[in-house]
Design a protein that fits this description.
CATH topology of the largest domain: Rossmann fold
Strand order of the largest sheet: 3-2-4-5-7-6-12
Distance between the termini: 36 Å
Bound molecules: thiamine diphosphate, iron/sulfur cluster
Helix content: 25-40%
Number of domains: 3
Shape: globular
CATH architecture of the largest domain: 3-Layer(aba) Sandwich
CATH class of the largest domain: Alpha Beta
Amino acid sequence: MKTELLLGDEAVALAAIHAGIGGAYSYPGTPATEIFEFVHEYASEHGGIAARWSANEKVAYEEALGHSYAGGRAIVSMKHVGLNVAADPFINSALTGVNGGLVLVVCDDPGMHSSQNEQDTRCLADFAKVPLLEPANQQDAYDLTREAFAFSEQIGLPIVVRMTTRLAHSRANVRVRQPDSPDGQPVRRQTAPDANAWTLVPSNARRRFRHLLTLQPKLIEWSAAHPKNELTLAGRRGLIASGIGYNYVREALAGHGDFSLLRITTYPLPVELIRSLIDHCDEITILEEGYPFIERQLVGLLGLPGKTIRGKLSGPLPPDGELNPDIVAAALGVPRPAHAAELTDLSNRPPQLCRGCPHIDTFKALVEATAGAGSARLFSDIGCYTLGVLPPYRAVHSCVDMGASIAMAHGAAQAGAYPVVCTIGDSTFTHSGMTPLIGAVRANADMTVLILDNAIVAMTGGQETMAAGQKLLDLLRGLGLTDENLHVIEPLPKNHRQNVEVIRQAIAHRGLSVIVAQRECIHNRRREAPATPAAAAAAGAVVDPCRTCGAVSEAGCKLAPSGS
Ligand SMILES: Cc1ncc(C[n+]2csc(CCOP(=O)(O)OP(=O)(O)O)c2C)c(N)n1
Ligand code: SF4
């Protein structure tokens, strides 16, 4: 048995590789991105695994499902809001079932470090009626992901592994086991799936849903017997801890108090273990990251007579944000755990667009072009450019979900708003901006769409984009745009006047206009840029050290925002 120092995300990825996956599917999103990146790097070196970014999470899930249908094992990973995009195939795949093991890893972001919300994936797994495993540490992340592939094939369902930010992004030693396939070849099932099961016309769907319902008691039995649902009975004050909450409990207790403890790792919940704890205790505190998912089920509508249930609903734990050992200690009334180091003097560094970012020049032009039109509605989307919400631009009036800008702009134009402009990045456009644009083209909606093509998925760390440059323009023509309503600008200070004029004319045109602002993210350029100021000067670059990290501006800021 070997030991490796791994991020939680990497432990998941390595487990999938060792389980013999033939495919890894994903769309970038913090804190899940590193799962796919780890598999991708492995696949680039060793081959044998299909691993390319997908256009969006729905596509990623469907590609993984097709892989499973054909008998191979597949992992599909995404951030929590990505599962909203993939919810349709995910929920329906609980009815079709799977052939090769299919594991969906979703990383939730309590505290919203880089997300629009802090929804809890346990609710969606429950909604779909599929099992979910929740690691407490990196070792669990490895062990449970490996187990999930075998269990997926045994029970015939997709299995969800739920991670949260701290676990996904912190490192620990992980003991790894022999791969399932000693020759390194992907594991494949030879059985052909039943086509009726996979064709969800009503007669089949009804039958398959009944089958899913009959599996539920088996899942509860599996959960009750799972070795990582551990019950220790001691004092009459009880704790239920799940996920990373279990780690925090161990750290906070460290010998304090005489608590009974139930650790929960699997869902549906192990009912009998919970009953044993409740019977033994007078007061039960529930420590879970995300929603009060366990607590709500325990108290139901009417509570548990004679028992005190403490958690997020009843107050001692905050209803939002992350847990940590201090919060847990305070809730349990034990001393605050000792910290190795206290960080007290870190100054606040709000995110901002990098110096030299192409989006800056686009926003400057947009702000000037719409100055005077006090009622301009500026819809936006998710990417680095969302930072256009900040002063001095204040050119983002909405950011709801990926792809929303174009559809919301269309709705606002239909409500009579004018001028209506939306900003959307190239990756967000191919993720989910193309479909609303088809409707806007068809309706010749009175709005202006600015596609900010920086040739990269910048916000999440610089992944490959689906369509940039000429490919993006070809795509737009394919969607019905013509020379009359499709324009290209290069967002550079020297083009400012001209760019303002293009945007003004597009707004003045009473119908749909699309402007593509084409200029590479400076971090994409940095890959080929000279390494030192002297080399940069020799290459003719502007030598202007960044105030944040000291890099020359042509090489870009090393502290690029990476998140969402
Ligand atoms: C459904 C969903 N999936 C993924 C993300 C994470 N995410 C935020 S912005 C973004 C893409 C940004 O790329 P682009 O639109 O090209 O803008 P850029 O950051 O390059 O300016 C991604 C993947 C998310 N917020 N929501
Ligand atoms: S990473 Fe690129 S796109 Fe994002 S703010 Fe910096 S320069 Fe702009």
